[in-house]
Specification:
The chain has helices at residues 6-19, 26-29; strands at residues 41-45, 50-57, 60-68, 98-105, 110-118, 123-133, 136-142, 149-158. By secondary structure, the protein is mainly β.
Length: 159
């Protein structure tokens, strides 16, 4: 038995509109409420260990460490990038190290397609940053797939 299109198309369209799947629907548009430049600013790691300043350069975003709660080792010497795979960079201090590298806005209050450098391990990972609200982000560092990784949370301290 063939069911006429009129009996199912209107209920389907109504459901799509009410559920937020329709383009232009307020729920569907909520994902882009902050926009591309919303990531720029100063962010404090949730445990107050350090601050990262993120700036936009053309279509990409980059960030560097600008403050640390503990900028010295136990022996009193300044923390340096001693585990960097490039021997020429091992003497640079933690303050000023680029840690967010080339993220690109993907249109859904999320920035992908970049890297994050961890000076405590000397390793660089794939990275995704998602704006949870105007003043909080989730930074996901991973190898290959986002679900195989670690999340860090940061709060905005300056615009």
């Amino acid at each position: 038995m063939k069911i006429p299109i009129q009996t199912w198309i209107l209920p389907l369209c109504a459901w799509l509109c009410l559920s937020g799947f329709a383009p232009g629907h307020p729920i569907a548009m909520e994902a882009e409420k902050y926009g591309q430049s919303a990531l720029a600013g100063t962010w404090l790691k949730e445990d107050n260990a350090f601050k990262v300043r993120i700036d936009q350069r053309a279509e990409r975003f980059f960030g560097k460490i600008i403050w640390m709660e503990r900028n010295h080792w136990a022996d009193g010497s300044q923390k340096k990038d001693h585990l960097n795979p490039n021997p020429k960079l091992r003497s640079r201090p933690y303050i000023g190290i680029p840690v967010v590298l080339g993220l690109k806005y993907d249109g859904e209050d999320s920035w992908n397609d970049g890297k994050i450098y961890d000076p405590e391990s000397g390793k660089t990972y794939d990275c995704r940053i998602t704006l949870l609200n105007r003043n909080r982000v989730e930074v996901r560092a991973y190898i290959g797939f986002p679900w195989i990784g670690k999340s860090l949370f940061f709060n905005r301290v300056e615009p």
